[in-house]
Design goal:
The chain has 24 helices and 20 strands. It has 609 residues and is of the alpha+beta class. It has a four-stranded antiparallel beta sheet with strand order 1-8-3-6. Strands 2-7-4-5 form a four-stranded antiparallel beta sheet, with no helix packed on it.
């Protein structure tokens, strides 16, 4: 039976081959009948147990309090391996079969293997970092196996042997390339000495510069003699990684791509690196060059491909959020510049709200925006222009906001003074709806027009909430509204639709941290930056901010993966059955972090519900 132990499951997949062999050799199997006592409190710990089949319940000594349930592949009692004494009682809920791993073997593996040990660390941040490192190694392997194909081959500029240096330079500039292939003529002696190699040379911008400036060759000289030969090449279907090795070895930046010795294109080093880090720079260039809504729409439609490339290449969740936030800003700012009359663009400020304002949006979500207008500006066509802007953003893939928090709603279009008056009114007349409106405004981020118009409005908001304990208590209350999706026994709680990760995990962290940021005058809108500032001001312990940060990244990452997998870019439901054991374990741990944070918020703001 121990020979069948699955060492591909975390954390045993982190063991070396020899350590796995030692593990299997030390395992034994034990059977418990229904209601048998498996471990007794206050007794010495001798084994770590791993469930093969059945179920186990962890309870207090008198069985009056249940702490957790364990099922197939779960381990217990890890804590006693380090403390020496078992703290609680463990009972078989049904006929149960378990592996027994001797304590001394477990501790030996723990002390010898840092990755294995890190899995058992209670600090979520360290565990998540370990998983990300493993994922990056996997994605590096996937990159190594990516092949040269039509998707990554660039067309090559090919010129004849007799074309002049000046003409080649002009053509390279026209085509925006740094190198050109030169078709050598039949009389070129270099061909005779290298039979079987494609009859092409290569010339770069540097070669042309040296020929004219250092070798003093006339501009009308033919390019043939200047071209370097032979040209290093790879075959279509070869691995990109091999192309990179070839470039590194020969200190070159371009290689020719051939299909059975027929030239079909080029690869350059910058392109290969961009294939690994995605085409975000290309997308940004297309956005900036767009002169019509149609052109902008074509660029914006590539955004999901960018997200998938980033995720598939193992790029960290927070970096993805920052990059996509920047791309979204460019798209919306460009739409603003195409729709709003140029003479009025510096008389108003377009701000984004919600996850877009916090820079935490990945896939396109509902439009959440507002407009601040210069005091005294008479803009009679404002409503019509904002209607057009909202419609344009909808064309670009940003759905309408169900709550109507958009610039086509006059309630979200006001002069600077009017916004200040609105904020004062909301703080003086506390209502649940008013508090949510303040929460929305607290995340405002300026992206187009006169961005300086937002600062005095935000300063007024912070000033109004400064030392207002009763208002902050009402403001924070929604963070405690939704239950954390954990069962009474601390396991994941999921409905037929899935586990609502936004209500149960993301929102409590985001809104709770938003409240603390307002209380302590932190002007950052991004939740991760707010956490860093709260830690710096010693409002929260470093370990708390680390765990909250890692939990939030995990929630966003799991939601994104399932949105991409299930082709549903707006769903907040996570199908727990689609998660592997490690992800379920991290999700459960992260939700316990949220539960503890909510308890702290309730105590801090004296919320008694």
């Amino acid at each position: 039976m121990p020979d069948k132990f699955d060492t591909t499951l975390a954390p045993f997949d982190r063991l070396s081959h020899e350590q796995k062999r030692q593990l299997k050799a030390s395992l034994d199997v034990v059977y418990f009948r229904h209601n048998d006592t498996i471990l007794s409190a206050n007794s010495a710990s001798e084994h770590l147990l791993i469930i093969i089949k059945g179920g186990v319940e962890e309870t207090s000594v008198d069985r009056s309090e249940i702490y957790a349930h364990y099922a197939s592949d779960d381990m217990f009692d890890v804590r006693s391996q380090f403390e020496g004494t078992i703290k609680h009682n463990y009972y078989a809920l049904e006929d149960t079969l378990c592996y027994l791993l001797p304590k001394e073997v477990f501790l030996k593996l723990y002390n010898e293997n840092g990755q294995f040990a890190a899995y058992f660390d209670n600090n979520l941040a360290k565990r998540q970092q370990l998983l990300e490192e493993a994922q990056q190694q996997q994605n590096l392997a996937e990159f190594i196996l990516t092949q040269v194909d039509d998707d990554n081959i660039q067309p090559a500029l090919t010129v004849g042997w007799e074309v002049s240096l000046s003409q080649v330079t002009a053509q390279m500039k026209e085509h925006g390339v740094d190198a050109a292939l030169v078709e050598l003529n039949q009389y070129d002696t270099r061909l005779k000495n290298n039979k079987g190699i494609t009859p092409f040379g290569i010339v770069t911008r540097t070669d042309l510069l040296h020929a004219v400036m250092l070798d003093k060759q006339p501009l009308h000289s033919p390019v043939g003699p200047v071209a370097c030969y032979p040209v290093h090449h790879v075959e279509k279907g070869d691995f990109l990684f091999n192309a990179m090795i070839l470039m590194t070895r020969h200190k070159i930046k371009q290689v020719q791509v051939c299909d059975h010795n027929h030239s079909i294109g080029m690869l350059d080093l910058t392109q290969i690196l961009s294939l690994f880090s995605t085409h975000s720079h290309v997308l940004a260039l297309r956005i900036s060059r767009a002169e019509t809504i149609e052109e902008l729409s074509l660029a914006a439609n590539n955004q999901q491909d960018l997200v998938e490339n980033l995720i598939n290449n193992g790029i960290k969740t927070r970096f993805v959020m920052e990059l996509i936030a920047a791309v979204n800003e460019q798209i919306i700012e460009k739409a603003f510049s195409l729709v709003v009359p140029p003479a009025l663009q510096n008389q108003c400020c377009l701000v984004v709200l919600g996850s877009e304002g916090r820079g935490e949006q990945i896939l396109k979500t509902d439009q959440d925006n507002a407009l601040i207008i210069n005091d005294g500006l008479q803009w009679h066509q404002c409503q019509a222009v904002m209607e057009k802007l909202t419609h344009t953003l909808q064309q670009l893939g940003y759905p309408l906001c169900p709550g109507n928090v958009m610039v086509n709603n006059s309630a979200w279009v006001k002069a600077e003074t009017e916004w200040k008056q609105e904020i004062s009114h909301l703080c003086q007349h506390v209502t649940p709806e008013g508090m949510m409106k303040l929460a929305i405004l607290a995340d405002a981020h300026a992206i187009a027009g006169d961005k300086s118009l937002l600062a005095p409005v935000k300063q007024h908001l912070h000033h109004q909430l400064n030392d207002q304990e009763l208002v902050l208590t009402s403001f924070t209350r929604p963070a405690l509204k939704f239950n954390v999706p954990l069962t009474l026994f601390g396991n994941l709680k999921s409905s037929k639709q899935g586990l609502d990760i936004k209500r149960g995990g993301i929102f409590p962290i985001v809104h709770g941290i938003r409240a603390l940021a307002l209380e302590h005058g932190i002007e950052h809108t991004n939740t991760f930056e707010r956490l860093e500032q709260l830690s710096a001001q010693r409002v929260l312990e470093q370990s708390t901010t680390d765990n909250l940060s890692e939990a939030l990244k995990l929630f966003i990452k799991l939601r994104l993966h399932q949105q991409l997998k299930n082709k549903n870019g707006t769903s907040n439901q996570v199908n727990v059955k689609q998660l592997d054991r490690t992800e379920r374990d991290l999700l459960r741990h992260s939700l316990h972090v949220v539960k503890k944070f909510k308890e702290w918020l309730g105590y801090h703001y004296q919320i008694r519900d």
